[in-house]
Records
---
Amino acid sequence: MRKSKTLVSVVLVIAVLAVIIGALIFFKVRQIAGFAGMKWSPPPIAVTSLVVREEAWQPTLNAVGTVQSVNGVTVSTDLPGIVEKITFESGRHIKQGDPLLKLDTKQEEAQLKSAEARRQLARSNLDRQKGLLQKRVSAQSDYDTSEAEDKEAEAAVAEIKATIERKLIRAPFTGVLGIRQVNLGQYMKSGDPVVPLQSLDPIYVNFSLPQQRLKDLAVGGVVKVKADGLPDETFEGKITSVDAVIDEATRNVLVQATLANPGQKLRPGMFVTADVVLPTKEKVLALPATAINYAPYGDSVYVVEKMKDPEGKGYDGVRQQIVTLGASRGDQVAVVSGIKSGEEVVTSGGFKLAPRAAIQRNNAAQPSNSGAPTPADS
């Protein structure tokens, strides 16, 4: 009897559970069927945007250049000898003609005394022969011989003096010295280096541009130069020379600009960027670089337009537009073709978009859009 009651209870519990599970399944199926009948669309994507306007840009030609001194040499010895005196310090500014180094000239000075004695004797003989010739006691040939000996003695003295002078090394031009490369007592051969010397003001900047730009280059054109390590300074100069030949390997023409460098901040060998400022301004459609979607198949932007969904309801959507880019300036990029003035373009958030995607503008914080940005940490 107990066993039959227990069995009935178990069956009753199982039946109740089956009813509950069946009801849950029934309501879930109805819910899913209801969702299937609904038309779902993703929420609008938050982006920033701006209306494209024409701007007047001063066009420039950009190039990478190298600083070169107007005069730059490594001062070297002309004759061999032992260093007797050093009269300069590394890194100092010197003037043309200032003495730098003196080699030992004891032997030449002794030779000079001997030559001067011979010159004095030759001069006395010449004076004596001149007197005898006037008295008709001596022949003209004797006088001519004495005159030649006097000139030869004078030339010997001048030669030794020139040798002594050549052993005193002087600065060939005004400039800044480099690191000293000699020591006292050192034996120098002819041509051994003494010290580098560079004139730094004014200074040259050499750079190359494609041959297609040759028509835009003229002597007197303005050039603006910036150097790594001097981010807050721009040096301005003018084109002083355009090479007469085009490099056959690169089809580039070499251009040389001359810049004032009173603070001597530009040094020979420095890497710089050079911008040749063209004389006429041009109208461009400028966008912040964040608006451009760069891709191998073509650069593009998203243009905001009024669109309709399948049910005919209007919404703000985007159209992907391929564009052709021009020069860049600061945070901005010039668009040559693909968009028109007055069109609204997405400036940030474009990486989340697809054609015809719905958007929601949030222009409280726009991306940087300056032609001459100043970084916060500069």
Note: The chain has a mean pLDDT of 84.
---
Amino acid sequence: MKVLVVDDEKDIVDLVSFNLKKEGFAVEKAYDGERAMRIIRDSAPDLILLDLMLPGIQGMDVCRMVRRDPRLSYIPVIMLTAKTDEVDKVLGLEIGADDYITKPFSVRELIARIRAVMRRFESGGEAEKKKTFSYKGLRIDYDSFEISLDGRKIDLSPTEARLLIFFSKNPGKVFTRSQILDRVWGENSFVEPRTVDVHIRRLRAQIEKDSDNPAFIVTVRGAGYKFAAARE
């Protein structure tokens, strides 16, 4: 398995890389956010070990960019940072980090955390790498963005297609409107949270046989929305 280690402190990158290689991992290195994103887009590592404070693109923004990209959103991310403030930890987890380790850290604990996260993603992560999604007659080709229902092609707007792909890659997980805006529209898009409701209504009109009793994208009262079930 390939781990991307991203930190602006070369000594930490070298230490972590050395120990990961001893444990049988392949390792790539990056010392800033721009380089990290190039590697992620080019080679899609199995896990990203990501420092919070980076030159250029910050670690939080790297995580957001990974989670918003349907081709990359399955990759597990562990935040590695000197910040111990609980607010930073909560924010990191809310934007999609899978774990959070503060410096100074034990190399043994770090390896254990990496293995634990990878175990959780062994089945789900591999499924995310598949080129297509199929559930109850709904079929999505992630490469071509082609979507069909019971063999009939569905023409969605780019935003509706991104919404559906996002939900299909996170089945059963509830997302608030703010989280959906962040993942699908991006944090720099100045749109109201209710915009999510409008697009979901339009999407349901295209893919649901009964929009009042949806089979795919379900409203979770008081929380947000989720994709109804696990994959076939």
Note: Residues 123-128 have pLDDT under 50 and may be disordered.
---
Amino acid sequence: MSHHRVVVEAVRFAYPDGTWALDGVSFELGHGESVAVIGANGAGKSTLLLHLNGILTADSGRIVVGDLPVAHGTLTHLRRTVGTVFQDPDDQLFMPTVFDDVAFGPLNLGMPEADCRARVRDCLERVGAWHLRDRPPHRLSGGEKRRVAVAAVLAMSPDILLLDEPSTGLDPRGRRQVIELLRGFAHTKLVVTHDLDLVLELCPRTIVLHEGRVAADGPSRTLLGDAALLERCGLEVPVAARPCPRCGFAPGLAEG
């Protein structure tokens, strides 16, 4: 199923002042993988995400989603294939009700109204938010908004999910709900996040960006236990990966 595959080859992108935000980034995502992208502020994480959905265009290199290169002529298809959940749900939720927000994409693609209503119900039920369908989005909690934003993306039936800081601004219960929600999806997922404990729970593989380059790419438990690597890249070992001072056991690095 190649439509779930992403190939990034030697991608470079510079800001107008000449600073390289991405400097030769390369990696591949396979079908059904759940991969984290981590790095300090300014490492290039969000810039990379905006290249994968075609909002930004690389100065050199190439990106292939499925069998199609990311290019001007393929953006319409690309944005049906790749669903992006932005860091702030308020950037995505703008209709009078939750139902209208989730229906917006399918209706604009020409889906018949009856089919769209069924699609909206299915997506809201999948994220546990059908009961919110008549609520105005601005009256929702942070966790509720995040669920609705995910439902709105799922309504477009994407093959790949891109998530930018999915746990930002959530209380512990809302964070747990989002982790469990994302864990249940079979989509190929790329998760940009500072929440390294979330990475240990959700993403078996991690890509570490540092100054626009891939500093490491490998098993999350290995990389997030490497204090020297993380310090070099402006990060810290997550709480769950820190060894107990008495016994030395790190629960987040244990095989589950």
Note: The two ends are 28 Å apart (CA to CA).
---
Amino acid sequence: MLSDDDIRSGMEAFLERRDPGVRAATMGVGNDDLESGRRYLDGAAAGGWAVPSWPRELGGRDASADESRAIKRVQREFSVPDLYVYAVGLAMVGPTLLAHGSEQQQGQWMPSIANGSEIWCQMFSEPEAGSDLANVAMRAERDGDEWILDGQKVWTSRGMWATWGLVLARTDPEVPKHNGLSMFAIRMDSPGVEVRPLVQMNSDKHFSEVFVSGARIPDSYRIGNLGLGWNVAVTVLAHERAAAGGGGGGGGVKKRKGAAPTPPSWLAALLPSGRFEDPLWRQRATKAYSFDQAAAWTNGRAAASRQPGPAGSGAKLRSTRQYRDRATISLDSLGPEAMLTDNEHSLTFLTSPSMAIRGGTDEIQRNIVGERVLGLPSEPRVDRDVPWSRSRKGLL
């Protein structure tokens, strides 16, 4: 078992100590920086520090669950860059390949994810398949040892930067919608693939719409069994929700044993505003901080199991509230200045509504918690046994 000092020694080889007073950028807000994350991942690759639970030959260090948690805890003491650009590969594609990919696929794609040399995007949502993801219409038709893809995806995060896309496509329209899907990887520079960035209200262009017309990929890029793409998608989504909720801790450096307690960085940044003199505002801020702590403990308990599940939906709901509360409180601390758009909190505030949509809407997460955690009756699904070719428009 690695000691904390062993981990610090490894981290110091490629990372600087974190200044607790500096708020780190998160979720790529207002930032198109690829290089800082790539340098970090490249430096971490030799020791497998970025993805410690992965096998050594695939870019990790074969760390146990306890060792992985210790590495993550100590890592908070260091200035780790925002890895938003690389998060799809690190948090979703890599773990999914471990669960469903062949040895050849794992060896081909995972090391380049771990060292940051290749970026992945997730091509799931479509204009008529958002919350009802199983309604995807992108077609994949077999032609010998190749597949020909046609269709459109939308809200594809990181599409503008990605080398590879993880794409859910329909391979059999004559069976119920969940049964006729398969999962593929596709190079984003393939002939027939066009990426069009979408401008968000915070001015970021991190979402894209992707048009695919006659793009050809080999069958070796199919991940999992033919027609079982929904099972692969569920794995991806479970890891996505666990990752989205996993960042909802205290928001600051975890203090060493015996050290004086310090407020998290987002709360410490508000101290100069003088708003803490107002007891109602102080109560509002400390209520948000208390929720942060409860979320961190709950997420830590859920993380004891290395298999993501419905607990990730609860974590995602909590992280949405945390992000929104911090953004609103931080903006409100400015008083009248908050009406301006050139303050440090406006970008975060304008980003906060998207947190309830990205990674699966809050409504879908509540359905999952209700059905799979609380045991409530499932919503009626009249198209469960109907071929997708008949049910796709909701007309039975």
Note: Strands lie at 120-123, 139-143, 146-153, 164-170, 181-187, 193-198, 207-218, 222-223.
